[in-house]
C-alpha cells in the first residue's frame, strides 16, 4: 500500500507560496494528508436565527437585525458599540475593543447584519463581544449545514484554512488506497469508511447537524477510533523501545532500615505495596516507567524519597522536578529533613536562586549531590549531573513533553534514567489507559491514619458575613484558615487583583487578626516569607489564589473558604480542599457561589459535598468536563487529541487496545502509517 498523495507537499495548492507554506508549517501542516486530518475544533450552527428577545446569557447564537445606533468611546480605551434590533423588539449590543475606522464606518444606521457570537449580560442589556458578522439583505439565505472551525496560528485566518482544506479534499485518494483498518474490524465495530468520514466532518450536510454538535456522529466515532488507535500504537512502540535500553540497577541499600525507623510515621499498607513495585522495577536493569497516583495527602513524596535513598546507596543521583517554586521548596524541605540525617546530600535549584548560591548549587549537582530538587530550572543547559539515574516528576501534566525529554537526556551516558511520575490528581482508569499506556500504574489508595474527614458546605456568597464570623471564631480557638479567590479567565493579573481586593475587605472586617496575602505575581521571597509566617502560626488567615492548590501543608489550618467555587473544576476544588484536614482537628471547607447556580455547576458542587474520594471525583470530573479540564492545560509538544474525546469515546478504548495489538503483530506497516498520519512530528517527543 503506497502512501501516494499523503506525502505530497501543500505547495501544490493554489495560493500556497513560501510565506503561506511557512505559516502552515507552524501547525505541522506540511503535506496534503496533514490538511485532511486537520480536523475542526468545533462546529458553528449558522443554520438558524434566534430572535434577540429569546437570547440567553451564556449561549452561542446567530441573530439578524438592523443597526439602531453606533457609539465610539475613548474614555478609558477605544471602544465601538453597535446596537441592533429585530422584529422581536429586542436589542443587542455588539461591542468591539479592537477595531479600525473602516470597520466602524461599515455599521450604518438601518443596515442589516447577521451576527454570530457568545451572548453575555452587559451593563444595560445583552451583548456580544467581538462577534463575527456579515452585512446581508432581508432575503439572504441561511447556511444549510454546520460551519467547521479549525485550529489557527498567527497569520492564518479561518477563511484561508477552510479554502485550503476544501481544495486538499478534492485530491483525496480512493478508499482502496486510503483505508488502513481491516474490513472485519470496521464491520465488528460498525465504523464507516475513512474517506467518507473525513468528507463528513469537513463538509457537513444538512442532516448531520444534531449528531455532529453532540459529537455522536458515526464519522466522528470512526476518526476518534483511528486517533486513539494511533496513540495506543505509539505508546506500545515507545514501551517496547524503552525496555530494550539499559538502566542502572538500583537496589534498596543499607540506609533503607534507618530511614524507615527515623520517619515520624509508619508507612501505610498502600505505600509499602507501591514501594515494593518501585523496588522491583529499579532492580531489573531496564528503565522504570511508572506512574504513581494517589489522593491528596496519601504520601507519594515519602515513597519517592525512599526510592531516592536507594539511588544514593547505589552511588547515583535523583532529580525531583516540581511545577512551582512553592511546591519545589516544600519538597526540598521534606526530602532534606528525611534524608540528610543519613548523610544523603540534598540540593535545591530553582529560578529564584541567583549568583553565588546558584553557582554553588550547579557545582554540587555536578559533584557530590545525591538528590536534586527543583523546578524547570533543572532542565537548563548549564545544569550538569554527575550520574542522573532516577527522575521523579511531580504533577507531571503541568510539564510539556520537551521539558521531560530535556531532563531525561541529562542521564548517565548510555544508561537511560528511571522515570517515576507522580500525580495527586486521581486519573480515571479510562484516561490512564489512553494517556499512560506506556507506563505501569501504581495507586496509593489509602490515607495515613490521623487524617480527619472534611465537612463540605455549599453556600451563596450573599452569606459572606456569616463566613467571616466563622473565620473569627475558628481563629479565636487557635486554628488557621485559607480564603481562596476565584480563577478569573486564566489571568494571573486579574486573579492577583481579586485577591488584593478580598485581602483589603477581610483586613477591614477582621482588624485584630493577622492576615497574609499570597498570589502568583508576588516576588518569590515575599511568597516564601508569607508561607513561612502562615506555617509558623504568625498569620492566622491566608488570602490566596490557586497557587496553594498543591504542596502546602499546614496541619493547624482547619477551615478552607473557596470563593466563586462554581468557576472551578471538581479536581481543582478537591485539591484545594485537601489543604485542610491534615491534622487531628475537625476541618471544614466552604464552597461559596455566585447565584444563580447553573445545573452543571450545582452538580459539580454537590459531588464535592457528597464524597472525599478523589477517584470518584475524578470520574465525575471526566464525565462533566472532559479530560482537558481534568488534566490541566496541555503544553507545547504534548500529544493532544484532535477529535477523540475520552468522556464521549471511552467505550471504544478496550476495542482500540485490542486493535493496536493486532495491527502491530499482523500489519506493522499499516500501523506505522496510521501513527504517522495522526501523530506526525509529535511522535518523536512521545517517549519523554
UniProtKB/TrEMBL annotation:
It holds the Pfam family RecG_dom3_C. GO terms for molecular function: 3'-5' DNA helicase activity; ATP binding; ATP hydrolysis activity; DNA binding. Residues 281-444 form the Helicase ATP-binding domain. Its EC number is 5.6.2.4. Keywords: ATP-binding, DNA damage, DNA recombination, DNA repair, DNA-binding, Helicase, Hydrolase, Isomerase, Nucleotide-binding. It comes from the Bacteria. It catalyses: Couples ATP hydrolysis with the unwinding of duplex DNA by translocating in the 3'-5' direction; ATP + H2O = ADP + phosphate + H(+). The keyword Repeat does not apply. Transmembrane segments: none annotated. Residues 467-623 form the Helicase C-terminal domain. One of its GO terms (biological process) is DNA repair. Plays a critical role in recombination and DNA repair. Helps process Holliday junction intermediates to mature products by catalyzing branch migration. Has replication fork regression activity, unwinds stalled or blocked replication forks to make a HJ that can be resolved. Has a DNA unwinding activity characteristic of a DNA helicase with 3'-5' polarity. Belongs to the helicase family. RecG subfamily. PANTHER family: ATP-DEPENDENT DNA HELICASE HOMOLOG RECG, CHLOROPLASTIC. This is ATP-dependent DNA helicase RecG.
